[in-house]
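Ligand: adenosine-5'-diphosphate. Inputs:
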Amino acid sequence: MKTIAVLTSGGDAPGMNAALRAVVRMAIYKGIRVMGVQRGYSGLINGELFEMDRRSVSDIIHKGGTILRTARCEEFKTPEGREKAANVLRVFGIDGLVVIGGDGSFTGAQYLSEMGIATVGIPGTIDNDLPYTEYAIGFDTALNTVLDAINKIRDTSSSHERISVVEVMGRNCGDIALHAGIGGGAEKVIIPEKGYEIDDLCKTIFEGKLRGKMHNLIILAEGVGGANELAKEIEEITGIESRATILGHIQRGGSPSAFDRMLASRMGVAAVEVLMEGKSGRVIGMRDGKIIDEDINTALAMPRKLDEELYEISKILSY
Ligand code: ADP
Ligand code: F6P
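Predicted complex:
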């Protein structure tokens, strides 16, 4: 392994820079040249590669976003697009590619691996929707951002004795909502894995009111529906003033948490090690607190399982 390339792809996540820093510094430490690819697969197709040194990743460990930029690239989903990308890697003499991104980016990496390019993926997505790993880089920071927002919403919601519906990201995965719901002391967590019945929800709100609840915080995962519509429906049925807050892209930014920096640093180092061992088509993950690598196909085929115990906890503690 003489030269590797690294790119960030899909939605950005806090900690991607820390992962990039680890990849670059570990590779150079092992005597491997590193090329950074700008703008994900789009930059790969267009040959946007530049050599990175230790200094090119200085002062980024604490920064959100990705200094490499990221992109969603439709052309790469076509065989012709991937052929162009593979040619660019060949032209630049790249022996291995590290892809930092989510499941879509991993699917792309798997195609390249099947084309004979050694690839390894590092999970970077706030959604935490990759079942093979306990945590993806960015999830913890996003969660803390959501908690900070919930604390503030709680203040005003309580003063006005209102219902607040807070919509959080996660695509079809309820992890951000569930963890934020427990950590933020929400009255109700609504996630795609479980759904909800509007009548049951309103009954719970009525019962809470009888028990003296001053306000209701409802955390809604975006994969279930919109907060504005839900708040309106709840207000119509219960007669209690309701407000919606859509947290949006604030969840994707900010300085990575200590946990995400550690995770990113460990995963970045592991990715280089995996390539040095001559493996390809692997993804780095965390299981039982340990850094592991897994076959990409196996990882992508794993069904997502909701942590039922956590869901139960969210219900018990909200009473
Ligand atoms: P994420 O990696 O965060 O899940 P996306 O799903 O948007 O984000 O995927 C990022 C990029 O990965 C896409 O823009 C595309 O270039 C590539 N990609 C996604 N799905 C595929 C696929 N089925 N085949 C090839 N490339 C894909
Ligand atoms: O995958 C990360 C994510 O932030 C999802 O939670 C969200 O559904 C999506 O990306 C938003 O994508 P965009 O930034 O393209 O609006």
